[in-house]
């Protein structure tokens, strides 16, 4: 079953690669929105566990 997941991911790679090269500015934005949400969650969790600053 896991091999099927890897195969699916490998099939998607050419399209992902094209998308990375399609940027007009030459920059790649790698999920900045999701990363901010994770950092905010970690900060909030730390305040709950360790106490507010």
Write the layout of secondary structure elements.
Layout: H1 2-21, H2 32-50
Intertermini distance: 46 Å
Low-confidence stretches: none
Shape: flat
Structural class: mainly alpha
Rg computed from alpha carbons, rounded to a whole number of angstroms:
18 Å
Biggest β-sheet description? none
Strand content: under 5%
Count, helices: 2
- What series of H and E elements makes up the topology? HH
Instruction: Report the average pLDDT across residues.
Output: 77
The number of strands is 0
Specify the helix fraction band. over 70%
Can you walk through the features of this model?
There is one protein chain. This protein has 53 residues and is an all-alpha fold. The chain is built from 2 helices and no strands. It is flat and about 45 Å long. The model has no long low-confidence stretch (mean pLDDT 77).
Short description:
74% of the residues lie in helices and 0% in strands. It is mainly alpha-helical and 53 residues long.
Summary tags:
single chain; mainly alpha; 53 residues
């Amino acid at each position: 079953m896991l091999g099927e997941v890897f195969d699916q991911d490998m099939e998607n790679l050419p399209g992902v690669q094209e998308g990375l090269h399609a940027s007009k500015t030459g920059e790649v934005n790698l999920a900045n929105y999701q990363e901010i949400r994770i950092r905010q969650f970690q900060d909030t969790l730390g305040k709950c566990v360790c106490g507010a600053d």
